[in-house]
Amino acid sequence: FSQYLWLAARKLFSNDIIITAILLPAIPLMMNTFTSRYSSIATLIRKLHDEIINKGNKNISKNYYEELKILKKRIAIIKTVQITSAFAFIFDLITIIFLFVEKKSIADFSFVIAVVFMIFALLLFVIEITLSSKALNKHLDDVREI
Q1: Which pLDDT score is estimated for 91?
Q2: Do 48 and 68 form a contact (C-beta atoms < 8 A)?
Q3: Which stretches within the chain are classed as H helix?
Q4: What number of other Cβ atoms are within 10 A of residue 86's Cβ?
Q5: Buried b (16+ CB within 10 A) or exposed e, 14-29
Q6: Which residues, other chains included, contact 73 with Cβ-Cβ below 8 Å and sequence gap of 6+?
Q7: How far lies 70's CA from each of 30, 45, 112, 138, in Å?
Q8: What is the mean pLDDT of each run of 10 residues along the chain (146 residues)?
Q9: pTM of the predicted model, to two decimals?
Q10: How far apart (Å, rounded) are the C-alpha atoms in residues 139 and 106?
């Protein structure tokens, strides 16, 4: 049975356009996820800004300032992930176009570029999650000090 399954999968994925199309929905989903993360961080930054600047709160712990530095890094990473994902999406679409006009070598090259952009975006995603955890630990440190 597994041999037949393997042959069916090989036949299905022998069509280059299907392989390219598999990556197609993943990229916008990733971009949507990061747009949501960006909005959440922007809301948090505005809240912190309001607490520190507008309300004149002078009793801010050093963890707040460290968290603000982390938030600034996270915003930069999310922006880079969004741009990288957009380029991956563009190159994936270019791949489809070149497969349609039967320019396989250009399509292969374009697909490799799309995959490299996605790998880079995913690595940045791991870094951003690490920074997010680090920022949450700053909150926990504040609670431990009380």
Answers
A1: 93
A2: yes
A3: 2-12, 16-49, 62-100, 104-145
A4: 15
A5: eebeeebeebeeebee
A6: 131
A7: 22, 11, 32, 10
A8: 64 60 72 79 77 68 75 88 90 86 86 90 89 76 62
A9: 0.70
A10: 50
C-alpha 131/C-alpha 81 separation (Å) is: 14
pLDDT of residue 98: 87
- Give me the residue label for tokens 């176009």: 97
Cβ atoms of residues 77 and 128 within 8 Å:
yes
At residue 92, the pLDDT reads 87
CA distance 4 to 10: 10
Residues in the chain, overall count:
146
Half-sphere exposure of 26 (CA within 13 A, CB side): 14
Per-residue exposure over 113-132, b if at least 16 CB sit within 10 Å of its own CB, e if not = bbeebbebbeebbeebeebb
